[in-house]
Specification:
The protein has 36 helices and 22 strands. With 808 residues, it is an alpha+beta fold. The chain starts with a helix and ends in a 10-residue tail after the last helix.
Length: 808
């Protein structure tokens, strides 16, 4: 009993920075020094970007930064200035909700800047996140009882880890790092000082990254909090469970605080091909069996990328498993690999058990990939956040060892020697596959750093100057991170000179769109036939930058009904469903359906096909860019008095599906019920009508009864329409529960038509129709947030600290 009590007391004292009697290091000067250190290292890594020679917009495998991230930021910047809160946008696909991007107003502050400053500011936003993540982790380690040396080393290792440096390109990685580090910090504050304030805030902010981050935050807390309590207080399951329940209540309060955004955001995410399960996971095949092993290339990649993100190739030259981003991203400094086993030296029995537990948690999902699929709820086998959680564990253990060493602790030299030998054996393995993949120059550099660390550790112990040796080692860690991370970030990127040229997002398309809008104030869509980033393929998000309405979209969370519509008309190749559901070509391969979907202008760099097409009229030339007008274009909102059932529509050949949509609305069996006022068109009647009525005449008929728009914004459409008999007003945009219709001032239900478009049933007569978009569950979320804010404020006033926190 005395031994257990002594162990508990030692754990508690090691977990709390010294106060009240033993002077603690003054907080502000230390935080300032740490922040400046992180900034200095970050500036040296991103030197070419900080001084404007390059932008964090990559041209290699990281082209997502310029094809997705940049257009999204620019569009949000424009949207909040012209429309306000992120809601519905016709600049993405055929129109879809932006509500899931609301968290970007906090997580991506550069969207508040004018669009012309965004490319330049990307690097400063990333450095800000690196500093915040580093400072939060520094505080986590201090709360765990580590000294300044170990805490600074950990802050550097996390802020410039592979996961974070790749976040300069795939921005979600940087957000992950800040988000989950804040969750860890909040948990430590609650456990050590009983300050629960940060926990609900951290959970709320994590949900603003994506709703799925709430689940990942819950996983992190469920693993870390009980283990941390057991580390401090020992095996007292009932008492520890009681404390965990209290912390869980405060964490759940964070969900309520963010409900105004989370509820609507969850609808957008769940109403997407990816989250709904309609389309299989995007980057991986079916999940393996529970104890199925990976390929030899997989394990070689796992082993070598611990030493550097670029040990087996950089960017597009990557030669490892899957691809550069989806592969393991565990690098957080070579020192952590060398000394993390030393955490077991001098640790209590309880700590050794917990360290072993965490090593098992980060090793088993690597050895048996099924467990990593389990973490992602079988929606993929990503490393990403799993790698970040592994980095947390490795850095906590390694920096604990460094902290003990700097406080005149001793190293196990035999363990150090064995660890060094194993690491060098991996780097210089005689196995042919590893020798063929490895970057030999980087391997030699890594060898030098590993040996240097070992020598410094041994010398410091021999001369009993471990503290000085520790600080020298932290300096070497900074140099190592600068050397390796500069390789990671300094890949082919857009330069300042390129950005100023009349190419890419600055080409003549800018002038063409400006002139089109100046001369035409109706609703219309534009087709741009080449991509601003990669001219060999369409620019899926070009519309977001140039500010026109198109049909293409590159988004993780494309509207599910948008994709269903495209699949139904065979605009998406089902064999490539996962890829095209994310990088959707829209209606580019369906000229007839483009006309149906309100295409009125085409901007092209190849005028010949349009010059030969009777329906298109040349408008103007801008150097190598040509503008044509589609004279058959339909208005937005077309009336049909006949319908065909979905099962009949699916029987049609692909070439006849487009013409069929010009003659009748397609209704599911559910929507046919109680629509007796509409005329059913049988398959034979439909085929006869398509033979007798030309496509041109069908377009004329549709235009004659179309909606006459009086007012139009991104979230509100109003106009008048006249029907001689009962019919359905079909809007050429995806169905979304956020759209509410009003006919002659009275609410009217919206229905799903044409497999995925939005429609309103109308009786015969003259009508005023209005559509208003309100993000689903917005009011419910607002009520929950208000109630949660009241509970939060009352609890903060009544119980500023968690009562009865100690399970002792």
């Amino acid at each position: 009993m005395e031994e257990q009590e002594s162990e508990r007391t030692a754990s508690v004292s090691a977990s709390r920075p010294q106060r009240n009697g033993v002077p603690a290091v003054r907080a502000f000067p230390v935080i300032l020094i740490v922040a400046l250190s992180l900034l200095l290292v970050g500036e040296l890594i991103f030197h070419d970007f900080v001084f404007g020679d390059k932008f964090l917009l990559y041209k290699d495998v990281g082209a997502d930064s310029v094809m997705d991230t940049y257009p999204t930021f620019v569009h949000l910047s424009d949207y909040i200035r012209t429309c306000g809160f992120p809601s519905w946008s016709f600049c993405s696909g055929m129109g879809q909700s932006l509500f899931h991007l609301t968290g970007s107003l906090i997580w991506e502050p550069i969207v508040w800047l004018p669009r012309q400053l965004i490319a330049f500011a990307l690097v400063f936003q990333h450095l800000l996140k690196a500093v915040i993540a580093g400072l939060l982790f520094f505080r986590v380690l201090r709360l765990r009882g580590l000294n300044l040396c170990g805490s600074l080393g950990g802050a550097l290792g996390l802020a410039f880890s592979a996961h974070m440096c790749m976040g300069s390109c795939w921005i979600i990685s940087a957000d992950d790092t800040v988000c989950f580090t804040f969750v860890l910090f909040a948990a430590e504050e609650a456990i050590v000082y009983r300050r629960w304030l940060y926990l609900p805030v951290a959970v709320a902010l994590s949900g603003l990254v994506t709703v799925f981050h709430l689940y990942l935050s819950a996983v992190l807390l469920c693993l870390y909090v009980p283990a941390r309590l057991l580390e401090i207080y020992g095996w007292k399951p009932f008492a520890v469970s009681r404390v965990c329940v209290r912390l869980a209540m405060f964490a759940f309060l964070g969900v309520g605080l963010g409900a105004i955004v989370l509820f609507g955001s969850a609808y957008v995410v769940l109403n997407s091909p990816r989250a709904s399960g309609t389309i299989p996971n995007f980057a991986f095949g079916p999940a393996p069996s529970p104890f199925q092993l990976g390929s030899s290339l997989y394990y070689v990649t796992v082993a070598l990328r611990q030493f550097s993100s670029d040990m087996i190739g950089t960017g597009s030259a990557y030669r490892g498993w899957i691809d550069y981003y989806e592969g393991p991203v565990n690098y957080c400094g070579l020192l952590s690999l060398l000394i993390f086993p030393q955490a077991f030296v001098g640790a209590s029995r309880r700590q050794r058990i917990l360290y072993t537990f965490f090593l098992v948690l980060i090793t088993v999902p690597v050895v048996f990939p099924w467990f990593r699929y389990l973490l992602w709820l079988f929606q993929g086998g990503y490393f990403r956040t799993f790698s970040l959680f592994s980095i947390f564990a490795i850095l906590v253990m390694s920096m604990t060892a460094l902290s003990r060493y700097a406080d005149r602790g001793k190293l196990n030299l035999w363990m150090l020697g064995v660890t060094l030998a194993l690491l060098l054996l991996i780097l210089h393995s005689p196995i042919h596959q590893m020798r063929a993949l490895i970057h030999h120059e980087l391997a030699a550099t890594a060898t030098i750093f590993l040996i240097l660390y070992a020598v410094l550790l041994i010398i410091g112990q021999m001369v009993k100057r471990q503290s000085i040796a520790g600080w020298i080692i932290v300096g070497v860690v900074a140099m190592e991170l600068i050397y390796f991370d500069r390789i990671t970030v300094n890949r082919p990127a857009i330069t300042t000179q390129e950005w100023k040229k009349r190419i890419g997002y600055n080409d003549e398309t800018v002038d063409a769109v400006r002139d089109i809008k100046a001369n035409d104030n109706s609703f219309f869509r534009v087709t741009k036939t080449w991509g601003s980033v990669d001219v060999t393929q369409p620019g899926f998000n070009d519309a977001m930058v140039f500010g026109y309405y198109g049909t293409t979209s590159y988004s993780t969370y494309n509207n599910l009904d948008y994709i269903r519509f495209l699949m139904a008309i065979d605009a998406i190749n089902r064999a490539n469903g996962p890829g095209e559901a994310q990088s959707s070509p829209g209606l580019l391969c369906c000229p007839l359906l483009l006309t149906f979907a309100c295409e009125k202008y085409v901007i092209t760099d190849n005028p010949v096909p349009l010059q030969l097409a009777a329906a298109y009229e040349f408008v103007r030339r801008y150097n190598d860019v040509y503008v044509f007008r589609n004279n058959l274009s339909l208005p937005f909102g077309v009336v049909f008095t006949r319908y065909i059932p979905e099962d009949v529509f699916f029987q049609l050949a692909g070439a006849t599906k487009g013409p069929a949509l010009l003659h009748a609305a397609v209704l599911s069996a559910t929507n046919v019920i109680n629509k007796s006022g509409l005329s059913l068109l049988s398959l034979d009647e439909l085929e006869q009508r398509m033979r007798e009525v030309s496509v041109g005449d069908a377009f004329i008929e549709c235009r004659a009864t179309a909606l006459r728009i009086n007012a139009f914004t991104q979230t509100r459409v109003s106009g008048t329409v006249r029907l001689d008999e009962n019919g359905i007003l079909v809007f050429q945009m995806p169905f979304d529960a956020g759209w509410h219709s009003f006919v002659n001032g009275r609410a009217a239900p919206t229905i799903k038509v044409d497999v995925g478009l939005l429609g309103v049933v109308l009786p015969a007569g003259q009508h005023t129709v209005e559509l208003i978009y309100r993000p689903p569950y917005l009011y419910l979320g607002a009520v929950v947030t208000l109630v949660s804010c009241a509970i939060f404020s009352f609890s903060l006033w009544q119980w500023p600290r968690i009562r009865g926190m100690s399970p002792a």
